Amino acid sequence: MKHAEFSSKLPAIYRDPFDRTLIAQASCEALPLMTTDRQIRRYNLQVIEP
Known about the structure:
By secondary structure, the protein is mainly alpha-helical. It has helices at 2-8, 17-28, and strands at 33-34, 47-48. The protein has one domain (2-48). The protein has a two-stranded parallel ribbon with strand order 1-2. It is globular and about 30 Å long. The mean pLDDT is 90.
């Protein structure tokens, strides 16, 4: 439930619910997110490029 709440409070950089959920999970759990999408760097989380 905390991921869904966090997701609803994210800035509207991404509107896709799946992407927002991944970003929220990574943020809430302090986990890095692996992606090549540079837009995700606009959120305050650790990103690993493959």
